[in-house]
Amino acid sequence: MNPIPDRCSSSSCATPRLKTQPSCLQGGCGACVVAIQEYDLANKRWVYRSVNSCLKPLVACHGLSVTTVEGVGSERRCLHQVQKRIAENHGMQCGFCTPGMVMNTYALLKSGGKPTAEESMKNYDGNICRCTGYRNLVQASESFCSDASPEAQQLAEKCGAHDADLCDKLSGPEHAKMDVPRQSVSFFKEGFAWYAPMSLEEALEIKKSKPRAMYILGDTAKGIRQAAYEVANGRANDVISLRNVTELNVLEKTGTGLTFGGALTIQHLVEALEQYQEVHTQLQWPKALADGLKNVAQHHIRSEAGWAGNLLITIQRGFPSDLFPCLLAGEERCGTMIGAVHGSWQRLMRKSPSSPATLGMRSAWH
Ligand SMILES: Cc1cc2nc3c(=O)[nH]c(=O)nc-3n(C[C@H](O)[C@H](O)[C@H](O)COP(=O)(O)OP(=O)(O)OC[C@H]3O[C@@H](n4cnc5c(N)ncnc54)[C@H](O)[C@@H]3O)c2cc1C
Ligand code: FES
Ligand code: FES
């Protein structure tokens, strides 16, 4: 496996050569989904989430624990309840999507709390199945929920109790072996370099010494552009990951608004806005903005992709962003201050009036 992501190909992404399926290689189908555990620098806690492994370069997995469907359970060792309930409920036919489906529900359960039936259903927004028609799959997930339907409850009773720690018993608790990121790291191979600095100063220094180096955060834009690192026409040999940059992991909630650093993901924004709404019940815009942002892509992408990256590809490549009109409406309607890196917000605001598409989207919000 080539650890350096010079192209969006199955040989440079983190999709393991196991039962996890590489399929579209664009973050669109969910067949390659794996669960990761990582330290969330913005919220200062360990989190579980599902990601499209086809878009995640192997080097970006440094310091993370990655669980594939093999780590969850198997017929030989013992099936996890997620696997058992999908199988019992005829939630698979050809089986191509099944590893991704299992990992989708597994990551939801591992991310804490007991999901509601609605949450578990919405959690399918990033996984495509061409055979089952979803009903049996959704019911299998619903059987873990606090408000499961009578049919889903029957399935749970038939399959037995859910042992939330089974995976840990099978493979050991991964997070116990991991450290909070504290040091900058870099990887080099065959002319390609990957830098993951911890400070803004260091990131800017690297950029100064290597002007053609490309900043990335979620590295998901290659999924829609069908080519990796096209800033240098596919030849950006040096990549600077902003994920661990302390100054860009700022998430501030004050009485007058929210400030998001440039290393925050779209999911960070959604969660922060929802929490802000709970505290500031007299306001209406935080929930409206969060609901709008939930329409961007699907949850595997939202938890990897940065809001800043979305604005950057909108400015640089004319990407028809869904995030931009949401932020634009937020800016207009509630005076929310969005802290943008490199003046991207201002540049976008200057560009937007001439775009009929933007104006159309803008009026749709009024
Ligand atoms: C399957 C799929 C579905 C999608 N669906 C939607 C959708 O429905 N609606 C929508 O609006 N978008 C959608 N997107 C686009 C997605 O939102 C963007 O790919 C994502 O937001 C880009 O963020 P990133 O962190 O991954 O950027 P990256 O891929 O890491 O970088 C993209 C660009 O931004 C620059 N950049 C990134 N972060 C910073 C920063 N902090 N400072 C300076 N420069 C930076 C990089 O240099 C690069 O030029 C989809 C993407 C995929 C793959
Ligand atoms: S292979 Fe389709 S989302 Fe990764
Ligand atoms: S079971 Fe065939 S694609 Fe889902």
In short:
Pfam families: FAD_binding_5 (PF00941), Fer2_2 (PF01799). Helices cover 37% and strands 12% of the residues.
- CATH class descriptor of the largest domain: Mainly Alpha
Helix content: 25-40%
Average pLDDT level: 81
* Form type: globular
What's the number of helices? 16
CATH superfamily grouping of the largest domain:
[2Fe-2S]-binding domain
What quaternary form is this? Answer: single chain
Q: Domains counted in the coordinates: how many?
A: 3
The radius of gyration is 21 Å
Could you list some keywords that capture this structure?
disordered N terminus; binds flavin-adenine dinucleotide; Uridine Diphospho-n-acetylenolpyruvylglucosamine Reductase, domain 3; DNA polymerase, domain 1; Uridine Diphospho-n-acetylenolpyruvylglucosamine Reductase, domain 2; three-stranded antiparallel β-sheet; four-stranded mixed β-sheet; alpha/beta; binds FE2/S2 (inorganic) cluster; 3 domains
